[in-house]
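Hey all, quick one. A colleague (J.T.) asked me to put the flavin mononucleotide job into the tracker so the inputs and the structure tokens live in one place instead of scattered across chat threads. No bug as far as I know, just bookkeeping. Sequence used:
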Amino acid sequence: MLYPLLRNSLFMLPPETAHQVSMKGLQLAHSLPMIKHQLANRFQYHETNLAKTCFGLHFPNPIGLAAGFDKNASYLDELEMLGFGFVEIGTVTPKPQAGNSTPRLFRIPDQKALINRMGFNNDGVEIIAKRLKERKEKSNSKLIVGGNIGKNKVTENNDAWIDYCTNFKVLENVVDYFVVNVSSPNTPGLRALQEKESLRKIFAELQNLNKNNKPILLKIAPDLEPSALDDIIELTNEIKIDGLVATNTTLDRSGLKGLNMERAIKIGAGGLSGQPLLEKSTGILNYLHHGIGGRIPIIASGGIFNGADAQAKINAGAALLQVWTGFIYEGPSIVKNICQSLSANK
Ligand SMILES: Cc1cc2nc3c(=O)[nH]c(=O)nc-3n(C[C@H](O)[C@H](O)[C@H](O)COP(=O)(O)O)c2cc1C
């Protein structure tokens, strides 16, 4: 009820400032035991009827927070308080990166969309791993944490596998699963790594290191042609890939109409997320699910705002779901609302 008012105020700030202000506010709320308790009660979904086991991990509910929201693993306790079944940190790179120059995050409120060209701004794998280790030591939280990993901007594509392996080694004991991100549109050339031989090399090297069998998933772009999707489907037969995340943001602006299209042209480069991405990413999910024949689980990401969107993803073959833009527009009740709706449809 209150969130639309709060959102109006937050939307008066530049998007990145609004993000920082909200997270600091949540941090404060989390530090006050009475408020923390009330927020947890209000936002967490306490039933166990949506719990599920996927790639060997137990998820209390299927709604996760997608990568790029808590890039540095700084707010995991606060996000757990809001009821997320899992949180994917990152994208993490071996060396810290400042990312692209600002402004680099833009709202298109009429269509409940965002455009971003952040460029993997993050503290670097060593600092992030230390933060996760310290959290693990002092809390008994059961929150499932995924580690979304990428390469530094300065790393040549030929050497990209080394960056993925470095991230893996440093994060191995502090995350529950990994996602290989080769699908961000904001690191020049990164998406070329979605080509079959590059993926084969990265996954072969990672699985070689993976003595403890950590689940390693692949996150793909919604802009791939069917032939490239077929290559990925084939690759899942040839090499161990434990799951897919479908999808990242899109370069395609055709989901935007009229004035929003003009605004998007003015904004320029970046990945589009939110409502205009829903149909496209669900189509890709459906294609992959049929191609893979349900052999490995797929996490759906792209345009999920409510129970109907979530159900559409499940119908298309999703095992788990992630939100990002929906969290900005719908607010912290998004997890519980979706869970209640899925539960009513069960
Ligand atoms: C500001 C912003 C930053 C993002 N950063 C990352 C990232 O670092 N790594 C990644 O794999 N995806 C990143 N994403 C993509 C999201 O994880 C998600 O896949 C995408 O936004 C589609 O979901 P949505 O429509 O619910 O937002 C980012 C998205 C946004 C809006």
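Adding what we noticed when we looked at it: The pocket of flavin mononucleotide is lined by residues 66-68, 71, 90-91, 105, 114, 116, 118, 120, 148, 181, 184, 219, 248-249, 273-274, 277, 301-304, 323-326 (CB under 6 Å). The longest strand covers residues 86-92.
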